[in-house]
Specification:
The chain is of the alpha/beta class and 230 residues long. The protein is built from 9 helices and 6 strands. The chain folds into 2 domains: 48 residues, no CATH class; 155 residues, Uracil-DNA Glycosylase, subunit E (3-Layer(aba) Sandwich). It starts with a helix and ends in a 17-residue tail after the last helix. Bound molecules: iron/sulfur cluster (SF4).
Length: 230
């Protein structure tokens, strides 16, 4: 048996399948050179961790693939699993408000992804193993987008991208890098829905991100109800 076949059998992916004139699905760990088509096919057919069993569909990401801003959350929820797009539920609407407050808009110079691409059952937090197994997909997305800044939304994204542990309240006060890309840590919108008092801190984090991107400081928000601070 060839080494390659043995590897695929070990991963439970033999016999290998392929689409006519389409990229061949590869497990995340074998994706250093995948283009967007290859990434989409691989994620859609991935069964590398137990999360595949409960998904309606894998959710790769959405937005401008040449964006300067990249936002990374935890994993798809029920609505994301149904619609195939990250951050489309209540947390997604809050993220859209946070983007607007930062002078950004979903799909315009913004790319949004999650650490894990399949919905965890009952929306539980993905395990460390699940995050680590799925992480090569996110790493490849970052390599393809080549953003100027990454915003990690919540502890799972921060820990996965920084390769460290720590309280989010501490991580968000520090300046980080993913490789040579500036990385800002802030609260996940789902957390902010449960803890609206921390929206002010999230607003400050995004102001800090904006300042790291350019000399343009954030203007004080007037409290119209369409930002993360209200
Ligand atoms: S969560 Fe990631 S590693 Fe797990 S099955 Fe889905 S795409 Fe594959």
């Amino acid at each position: 048996m060839k080494f390659e076949e043995a590897r695929w059998r070990e991963l439970g992916l033999w016999p290998r399948w392929s689409l006519r004139q389409a990229p061949v699905a590869q497990p995340a760990s074998l994706l250093p050179e995948a283009d967007w088509d290859g990434l989409e096919v691989s994620v859609a057919s991935c069964r590398q961790c137990p999360l595949h069993a409960g998904r309606r569909q894998a959710v790769l990401g959405t937005g401008d693939r040449n964006a300067r801003w990249m936002f990374v959350g935890e994993g798809p929820g029920a609505e994301e699993d149904q619609q195939g797009e990250p951050f489309v539920g209540a947390a997604g609407r809050l993220l859209d408000q946070m983007l607007k407050a930062t002078g950004l808009k979903r799909g315009e110079d913004v790319y949004i992804a999650n650490v894990v691409k399949c919905r965890p059952p009952q929306n539980r937090t993905p395990s460390l193993d699940e995050c680590n197994t799925c992480l090569p997909y996110l790493r490849r997305q970052i390599a393809l987008v080549q953003p100027d800044i990454i915003v990690a939304l919540g502890k799972v994204a921060a820990h996965a991208l920084l390769g460290c542990e720590g309280a989010l309240g501490t991580l968000r006060t520090r300046q980080h890098h993913y490789g040579d890309i500036p990385l800002v840590v802030t609260w996940h919108p789902a957390y902010l829905l449960r803890n609206p008092a921390d929206k002010r801190k999230a607003w400050e984090d995004l102001c800090g991100a904006r300042q790291r991107m350019s000399a343009n400081p954030c203007t004080p928000h007037g409290g119209s109800g369409d930002t993360a601070t209200t």
